[in-house]
Write a structure and sequence with these properties.
This protein has about 250 residues and is of the alpha+beta class. It has helices at about 25-45, 50-55, 175-185, 190-195, and strands spanning about 10-15, 55-70, 75-85, 90-100, 105-115, 120-125, 160, 195-205, 215-220, 225-230, 235-245. It folds into two domains: about 1-130, Thiol Ester Dehydrase, Chain A (Roll); about 145-250, Hotdog Thioesterase (Thiol Ester Dehydrase, Chain A). The protein contains four helices and eleven strands, in the order E-H-H-E-E-E-E-E-E-H-H-E-E-E-E. A hairpin with a 4-residue loop joins strand 10 and strand 11. It is globular and about 50 Å long.
């Protein structure tokens, strides 16, 4: 993998603030690290946040999907690999893999990104931006694309929550990982004692900002398979999330 210069590699140790009450890495913390690796790599490829910001542009995450094979443990050393893939008219693809120090595959992930002109709030086509990157041939973290998720109806009796300052990123929007954190935190402690998250998929539709209100439409499609749609107070779809869980004993 290291022979392909367009594949970025970073190593880290799992610290106490990365893990949950079972001393295993929180999945949203791992996703934060994947996004950090993607950001560093984009900068090295001359298409990072600062490069785009100078042109009035920014990266917007459209879809993300992760499969957990084994959760990293407290004190374990892990290696993250990430690489860009073929680009389409509006979409840039990027994959990720996470390995243990012994070479065990711990997680595989896919992402789809768009470039947005923040001055006019418009998605840019490939022919409107200049990003020159070589892509590794026939390398896929997973043999499929991120799924388009169904929408769960707006709840009949919604309970709204407010976006906090700590939810925001440098673009003054809710950080994309915080939507995932909100979903994960909706499950009770007893559920986590018996089950582990195996897969998570999220489709982003709209950006929440400071002090805006949001709520959840939720359904359990099959046992341990949940679909959730996040809405703002105007009933506009913000994000759709699917989670697949397995019993702790089977992970």
């Amino acid at each position: 993998m290291e022979s392909l210069k367009v594949i970025y590699k970073t190593e880290m140790e799992v610290y106490g603030y990365d893990v949950d009450f079972q001393c295993q890495m929180n999945v949203y913390r791992l996703i934060e690290l994947l996004h950090d690796a993607a950001g560093v790599h984009a900068t090295k490829l001359n298409c990072g946040w600062k490069h785009l910001h100078e042109e009035g542009l920014f990266w917007a995450l459209s879809k993300f999907h992760i499969v957990m094979h084994r959760y990293p443990k407290w004190g374990e050393k892990i290696t993250i690999y990430t690489w860009p893939k073929q680009k389409e008219n509006l979409i840039f693809l990027r994959d990720y893999e996470v390995y243990s120090q012994e070479g065990e595959l711990l997680a595989s992930a896919l992402s789809e990104w768009m470039i947005v002109n923040y001055k006019v709030n418009r998605i840019m086509r490939m022919d409107q931006v200049q990003i020159l990157v070589d892509f590794p041939e026939q390398r896929d973290a997973l043999p499929y694309r991120v799924a388009k998720l169904p929408r769960v109806p707006f709840p009949e009796n919604p309970t709204f929550q407010r976006v906090h300052i700590s939810d925001l990123d440098m673009n003054h929007h809710v950080n994309n990982v915080n939507y995932i954190r909100w979903i994960i935190d909706r499950f009770p402690y007893s559920f986590y004692q018996e089950n582990k998250l195996k897969q998570l998929t999220i489709n982003y539709s709209f950006q929440l900002k400071a002090d805006q209100l949001y709520t959840f439409g939720e359904t359990e499609e099959t046992p341990l398979n949940f679909n959730t749609t996040i809405y703002n107070e105007e009933q506009k779809e913000v994000a759709k999330v699917a989670t697949v869980w397995v019993p702790e004993s089977q992970f």
